[in-house]
Amino acid sequence: MPEAATMQAPIADGTIEISGKMFMHDSSGRLVPTELIKPQYLLEDQTVRKIIGFAQELSDQITRFRGHTFDDVAAFGELLAEQYQAKRGGKKGNVTLSTFDGLFKVVVQVADQLSFGPELQVAKTLVDGCITAWSDGARSEIRALVDYAFQVDKEGRINRAALFQLRRLEIDDEQWRHAMAALGDAIRVVGSKEYVRFYRRPNLSAAWQPITIDLAAA
User: Fold this and answer.
1) What's the mean pLDDT in 20-46?
2) What pTM, to 2 d.p., does this model score?
């Protein structure tokens, strides 16, 4: 793992001294004498730079913390392997570590990153054919699920959860089975990503509460 990043210096104040006068670049890249900039704009600039300085420092701390967490979990697994000749963990490296009193736990999960190949369009054509052939015999819920499953969002992403829900439907139709086979062949595992989550509870009968490291959820 790469070395942890060093603490960054405070964010620059954005001023430039030229021939004894202070200037700042505006959003068009032009140099403007600071004496001509309205006080509220200077105050806004200072406020944003102060907040960004704290945000960048916190982001760097979280990056280092995440790296150290995975290192600690990996080191523990290696120690177990050395002692028992077996690794602690489940499928794909998922692992849960708990305190002895059962009040704190760390959960590391490895999730596949998926993409979809050209077979997806074949599957969509076959599914559309099924819906057309069934006509009024198709349940409205299935029609809605099909439309939802193959819908592309603003970022061009397919609704994976809905596609997998579609595959779980038990429909006795040959064309539908061909469609689901094409859908299965379209799935590509292009990588994986590790996630770590932290939980605590006040006593053994209480529900687990996540320890959030998320500005939106704080």
Assistant:
1) 95
2) 0.58
